[in-house]
From TrEMBL:
It comes from Sphingomonas citri. This is tRNA threonylcarbamoyladenosine biosynthesis protein TsaE. The keyword Oxidoreductase does not apply. The keyword Coiled coil does not apply. It comes from the Bacteria. InterPro entries: P-loop_NTPase (IPR027417), T6A_TsaE (IPR003442). The lineage of its organism: Bacteria, Pseudomonadati, Pseudomonadota, Alphaproteobacteria, Sphingomonadales. Belongs to the TsaE family.
């Protein structure tokens, strides 16, 4: 099983939003995209770019307190759950969220996936954000075979 890897520089939040917009048409029901990195590095901004490109009229709120923020047509073109696991204390709590069942007809954007325990969502497109010395963001990614030729960021 070959995993494609790479990285790219995101100069500012508009680059992050644009990358989210580029990711949106690639998403399919059943897809999982994990968003890792510290606080304030761009995870929610990328999700907002995805949701705006899928047709969400208003700015998407951070799901930090709701944990799961669902979106469905006609609000967006594809059913999608924006998930923030930051507040979970135990990986077992993920089971209660019903995310595996949601994948049957929705895509998942999951912030703080490491809170779900190692090895979950092995078929996810894994995006990791880090802050560069000049304040820009470095996005590293791992695309498993399930993503085939779909994910080719520039």
């Amino acid at each position: 099983m070959s995993v494609a890897q790479g990285s790219l520089r995101l100069a500012d939040s508009s680059d992050t939003l644009a990358l989210g917009a580029a990711l949106a048409p690639l998403l399919r029901a059943g897809d999982v995209v994990t968003l890792s990195g510290g606080l304030g590095v761009g995870k929610t901004s990328l999700a907002r770019g995805v949701l705006a490109a899928l047709g969400l009229a208003e700015e998407a709120p951070s799901p930090t307190f709701a944990i799961v923020q669902p979106y469905a047509p006609p609000e967006v073109a594809l059913p999608l759950l924006h998930v923030d696991l930051y507040r979970l204390d135990d990986p077992q709590e993920v089971e209660e969220l019903g995310l595996d069942e949601a994948r049957l007809d929705s895509a998942l954007l999951i912030e703080w996936p490491e809170r779900a325990g190692a090895g979950r969502w092995r078929d996810a497109l894994a995006l990791t954000f880090a802050v560069e010395p000049d304040g820009a963001r470095r996005l590293t990614w791992e695309a498993p075979p399930a993503w085939g030729a779909r994910w080719r960021p520039r």
